[in-house]
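Ticket opened by: R.M.
Priority: normal
Category: complex prediction / small molecule

The reporter submitted a protein together with pyridoxal-5'-phosphate and asked that the result be attached to this ticket for the collaborator who will pick it up next week. Submitted input follows.
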Amino acid sequence: MIRTNNNFNFLKGSYLFSEVARRVNEYKEKNPDVEIIRMDIGDVTLPLCKAAVDGIKRGAEEMSNKETFHGYGPERGYEFLRKCISETDYIARGINISSDEVFISDGAKSDIGNFVDMLPSNARIAITNPVYPVYVDANIMAGRLPEDEATDIENKGKIIFLDCTEETGFLPKLPTEPVDVVYLCYPNNPTGVVMNRDELTKWVDYARDNSVLLLFDSAYEAYIRDENIPRSIFEIDGAKEVAVEFRSFSKTAGFTGVRCGYTVVPFDLKVVSDNGKQFLLNNLWNRRQSTKFNGASFVVQRAAEALYTAEGRSQVTEMTNYYIENATLLYNKLTEAGMKVFGGKNSPYVWIKTPSNISSWEFFSLLLEKAHVTSTPGVGFGSTGEGFVRLT
Ligand code: PLP
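Result attached by the on-call engineer:
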């Protein structure tokens, strides 16, 4: 028999969304006349804005012309887009990030998944619970198992969960044992909670004091309206020495089907290998990307560039405002109805505590049958999500 990567044995089945779909379909078959309101899937519902479509058209025109045709592009992305990102998303906000610290990709999920290539194989990885499952699964594929399953495997690295609960406002506490890497995601999926400046500063200081790499997922930064909430980890002093930031146009501009995102790896971030050799993480990531990636599509990068025009920026704000209004409405009505609700502000996600402590799946069924609303059971995002559901 042909042998395979044994680490896949340790992945949990992608049971959550398939089970939600199965139960919804079963209900629909039994109740064909009922209109179901889908609040489970974390996808956008509005079509692309005009600026993005014009960008795609422009890119396609250029590709159809001998003088402006583009074949293989730079692996790290075209300068025209990296410049827009560095100037608009960072320099204009007082953060000194140059275009060469920005890497364009086909979305944040790929970059987050691929970044495990950069981590030492025996790394101790801290991940919040509940969590966006990609951080956990990508590390398991690379041989780093959750702590309880990793005990008998020597020198393989491990995953340590940082439990986030109602008592902590669904924010993690600093690890109590040594770790090498921490994944943070704010505004958070699934809980919708955000991290304020003091809280984020605590993590950056901790990372600097303990030589910890912070992998900061800011896929939902476009939903932040409160000026006191950092949109980027690089707003915090010293973060450039310890943090990498992942961003996406998916939830910002409805690019979930177009595919474009970017990762910022600052030049200040220095790393060391076991033989004591020092590197810039930026150079290593560039080396990794040029080996395994041939760059995001030119046409898509033109579409993303168009989001940075005045027209594009106002259309993006209009789209995100729409999702924020929905989340605010949900938050307010559920709170008025006496429910305990997290998130919903500066985020498209609303995280609800189930009434009378019933389980996530029981509440999922109740919402489906009585209100014809679909939700995502919180327990699917980790053990501390039990007793909660996510709406979006
Ligand atoms: N990070 C988080 C927290 C997400 O929720 C998602 C998508 O749902 C992603 C990253 C992936 O974004 P992209 O569509 O750019 O791959």
